[in-house]
Amino acid sequence: MARTLNETKRAAILNAARVTFCRDGYEAAKMSDIAAEAGVASGTLYLYFKSKEALACAIGEDFFKRLSEQFGEIVKNFRGPESVEMLLDWAMEVATQERDVLALPEQVVPSAETSDSRMVLLNQLTEVFANLMAQGLVRRYSDPQTLAEFVLLTIKWVVKGQCHNHRVDEVKGTAILVLQHALFDDLTLAANRLIQANK
Questions:
Q1: 147-176: string of b/e by CB count within 10 Å (b at 16+)?
Q2: DSSP 8-state symbol, 108
């Protein structure tokens, strides 16, 4: 009979892995240290995760799941050019809160980039842009998913800048301009600038 795994214990192990990776660094972290941090035996840890890489992938998967839940709320209110800054502010807040996850080496979490949760994120944004295009609220493209991919890549660039404290204001400012011009026509942007100037 297959053993049923405890979700509370799994969550505790993942949290312990985050703490250990953050404290010791991914390369130096040991499975035995993670087990000790979680308060479980090493054998128990291996029932849940076969390797450090599997733990890192699970952390990445959980990260995208949390992201997609928050993202759903953010994009509900996406309307005009000012929404771009709101979206990027949220992304920068995520970068601050999830710094330890984002610091994991990309080569050990490849499945996170193609995970089901990331696809949920992409599908959410694709649907939002398809609806906004249909309403004439953003530029029309033949493939809304390509636009969604571009927006996600830009968000990723901003998040990386925030994580590495790399000219954060400059990166954000450039990203705002790039996304606003990708999403809105010149007349909409000019009208928005006029509204902002007269507030």
A1: bbeebbebbebbbebbbeeeeeeebbeebb
A2: G
Residue 132 identity (one-letter amino acid): L
- Considering the domain architecture, whether residues 64 and 45 belong to the same structural domain is answered as no
Report the alpha-carbon distance of residue 153 to residue 159 in Å, rounded. 10
Q: Are residues 46 and 67 in the same domain?
A: no
Q: 15: domain CATH number?
A: 1.10.10.60
In three-state secondary structure terms, 140 is coil
Segments forming the whole domain that contains residue 163? 60-197
Tokens describing residue 78: 């996406």
Q: Tell me, what's the pLDDT at 2?
A: 43
- Cα separation, 115 vs 109, in Å, equals 10
Residue 103 predicted with pLDDT over 90: no
Do residues 105 and 127 both lie within one domain? yes
How large is the average pLDDT for residues 104-122?
66
Nearest to 81 by CA among 198, 188, 195, 197: 188
For residue range 144-156, list pLDDT tens digits in order. 999 999 998 888 8
Helix (H) or strand (E) holding 128: helix 116-134
DSSP E strand stretches across 3-80: none
Q: Global pTM?
A: 0.73
Radius of gyration of the chain (CA): 20
